[in-house]
Amino acid sequence: MTLPLEGICVLDLSRVLAGPLVAQMLGDLGAEVIKIEKPGDGDDSRTYGPPFLNTAEGKRTRESGFYLSANRNKRSVTVDLSKPAGQDIIRRIAQKSDVVIENFRVGTLAKFGLDYASLSRLNPRLVYLSVTGYGQTGAMAERPGYDAIFQAAGGHMAVSGAPDHLPGGGPMRSGLSIVDILTSHYGTIAILAALSHRDRTPGGKGQYIDIALLDSMVATLSHRGVQYLISGKTSPRRGNVGGGGSPSQAFSCSDGQIVLTVGNDSQWLRFCEAIGEPGLAADASFTKATSRIENRDLLTPTLEAKFATNTKAYWLGVLGRADIPSGPVNELDEVFADPQVRGRGMVVPVAHPISPTLPLIANPIRFSDTPLTRYDPPPMLGEHTEAVLREVVGCTDAEIEELRQAKAI
């Protein structure tokens, strides 16, 4: 069955996470993705372990879980960008590509003649995405940075974590590389929009896309950011307490934690009846959503004591029957054993050249007419070098050998 982006060719010059995730998403959607890696070492993320994938005999390989998470549906080609012959390979692939993705420091690829200005002269239809820490402009444009830096500088840590007065309180980074992940979503959307614009524009001209991790983090502040902008006040960190309703937080049961959200007054009435506390519903301090938020510190101790009296399963059953949004605080083993997660097919077993089965996390997009069923395993380093040089670049066997002797591949 045809996938949405079949016929689109992507040249992926990116490494680590944000850029590779963009390319992986485009590959999931059906694009042909050619991943360029440094000969010998490959993508930096190949070393980000343990854990590493094991062979059937239990021997550790160089395929890290980090790398495997962001590089399916690609072909790996090893090219040394510092060599003129390597640069020529990239130009020849770019001439046949629709998209280029790169995340080098500002100005690096211009030194090799592989920047947007250079490649778009060869292929005006090219959509070219640059992902950097601080963007292409501004006083800090040339500085390097990683995800945690932008969680801190972009405000994510300021709004995450327990309140300062509690044990362990203070700014807290996310356990995920959340800036890279969110930036990859912005990057994917930008490329799809630019391709649509190109194909609706006379002459079909592509364009350049500048996306910064810092910008993406600031944009993701969303309502917390706008709340500050209209009030001039920084809202306190709430830990596992939500800000859009009350109660809306994690509660400890006798055997673990659950999270629930009472989002409106009708839910509040059902909630009080379900947990056997009709007096709370009648209390004027808690009648309306605003009053429950204002009086959260009065309400929470009563609820904490209540939920501590029984198990997670018991309370989730009670809340589920009352149609109150709620769920368990799952460890990862519980996540992947969850019947709903399994029922949705969120783990996909993939055949891998060196391992009997490689479990990957599925793409969550569900199309009615073009289901995303393509899950080619993340490639081994340089696995497709010769094939791409022959099929895309048009090299002969003699030319490939010459490139190999010159250490350009």
Topology, element by element:
Blueprint: E1 9-12, H1 18-28, E2 32-37, E3 52-54, E4 60-64, H2 65-68, E5 75-78, H3 84-94, E6 99-102, H4 116-122, E7 127-132, H5 147-153, H6 178-199, E8 208-212, H7 213-219, H8 222-231, E9 248-253, E10 256-261, H9 265-274, H10 278-282, H11 289-294, H12 296-307, H13 312-321, E11 326-328, H14 332-337, H15 339-343, E12 347-352, E13 355-361, H16 385-393, H17 397-405
Parallel strand pairs: 1-2, 1-6, 2-5, 6-7, 7-8
Antiparallel strand pairs: 3-4, 9-10, 10-11, 12-13
Any overview of this molecule?
Helix content is 37%, strand content 16%. The strands form 4 sheets. It has a 6-stranded parallel beta sheet, with helices on both faces. Strands 9-10-11 form a 3-stranded antiparallel beta sheet, covered by helices on one side. The chain has a two-stranded antiparallel ribbon with strand order 3-4. It is elongated. It has 2 domains: 9-220 and 344-405, Rossmann fold (3-Layer(aba) Sandwich), CATH 3.40.50.10540; 248-331, formyl-coa transferase, domain 3 (2-Layer Sandwich), CATH 3.30.1540. It is an alpha/beta fold. Helix 1 (18-28) packs across helix 6 (178-199). The chain contains 17 helices and 13 strands.
Quick summary of this structure?
The protein has 409 residues and is α/β, with parallel strands linked by helices.
